[in-house]
Amino acid sequence: MHYSVFSVLAQALRGQRDWKPQWRDAAPKPEYDVVIVGGGGHGLATAYYLAKEHGITNVAVVEKNHVGSGNVGRNTTIVRSNYLLPGNIPFYEHSMKLWEGLEQDINYNAMVSQRGVLNLFHSDAQRDSYARRGNAMRMAGIDAELLDREGVRGMVPFIDFDNARFPVKGGLLQRRGGTVRHDAVAWGYARAASDRGVDIIQNCAVTGIRRENGRVTGVETSRGFIKAKKVALSVAGSSSLLAAMVDMRLPIESHVLQAFVSEGIKPLIDCVMTFGAGHFYVSQSDKGGLVFGGDIDGYNSYAQRGNLATIEDVMEGGMALWPGLGRLRLLRHWGGIMDMSMDGSPIIDRTDIGGLYLNAGWCYGGFKATPAAGFCFAHTIARDEAHPHSAAYRLDRFATGHVIDEKGMGAQPNLH
Amino acid sequence: MRIRCPYCGERDNGEFTYLGDAGGARPDGMGTDAAAMHDYVYLRDNRAGVHRELWYHGAGCRSWLVVTRDTRTHEISDVTSAREAGLARRNSGTTSGEAA
Fold it and tell me: Where is coiled-coil annotated (chain A) (predicted)?
């Protein structure tokens, strides 16, 4: 369906009767070239780029629930490419560039808003650390600005600059970072992939992965067996459960991350802001609610809901930075299940099983990676080799010592 | 979620710190190969269901505990001290017990 100001006006006059579903709700065919397991942002983007970049359109995306019901609809919508390590920088910058052209590419309003991501620092040592990160970004051609205290005050005058323990000394700003409407990303990629011939099969849970002679032959699902030449797993949160179907153990623990939204208020904060002394990040949605979050709960969970101790911790972080938050009421909070990897970085790779591909381990940073993860994963599936931008995200890097540990936490997934 | 500490009684989970799966026994680092150490350090079963895991009661008695919990519901079915669990493993002579 074509969207334009004319179609909106015409539908308004006709009582909005003629809008059609944005993508085909397909039933499974007996066989596909590629079956992508997981109809989230990453799976749908992978299907889209398989069709667009590699001309592979005999593709199914199988989703156990409905499109957008998992983490793509549960995140805090932040996009950025402010990374330090060489393995991460080109990948996330590629993602940022794809975000910048996404709406024209898929002809869908994803409300890409480059409102700036501001990371605050609170000590001299932290300023050094952020300056180093900013320099690494600029050397790679990515925008970064180190703001002093007055620069920060110009952007967010309402925070507590003179907190006794954590005075605000300045911030690292990436102006090209910002937010994207998360649901629209899922819907837009679904529509664009479906238009190119991809079957999107909802309410179809994968219950097994069939193998013959060390090669996958298809997936068992709640809607019957689907034959496939290649099977691609893109099921963050449940990666270990799918891998267990082919007797693989992954360097991943599943943890619950909670997010929050306040009641709607008038425009107050026009950027994404993060607290440097605790884990707290906040932005304002277009409906007016403050969207914020912090640490994961820290224990293995598949429950999609968290506990009050973490909620209290996030609120304390928010109040330390921005005491005015205390006057707001919390509207909703929810949880999603994260693939917490052993070095805090993701995996986009082939596996030892022929025709089986893995996109996993996104920790709580998968949303911003959606376009590049789809782009690079599609490349890996189509050509059986890594895309240069995702070449460091190997499954065997823990055995070979090539870990990508941005936070330097070691093999302790709940600390990444 | 509340954890019934064997020494302090039922306490809020905010008093505890999580370490992880209590299932794997650490291989003898001098006597094993790199692949076995890799599996121990990096790979996890990550089960959806009953999970034996190590918690530390840092804001209470400072004991290490082995908690048996369902990762789908957060329901806790058993809590023992890690010391007792470790002694039980040693006495039973098994090698695949918890790393207490």
Answer: none
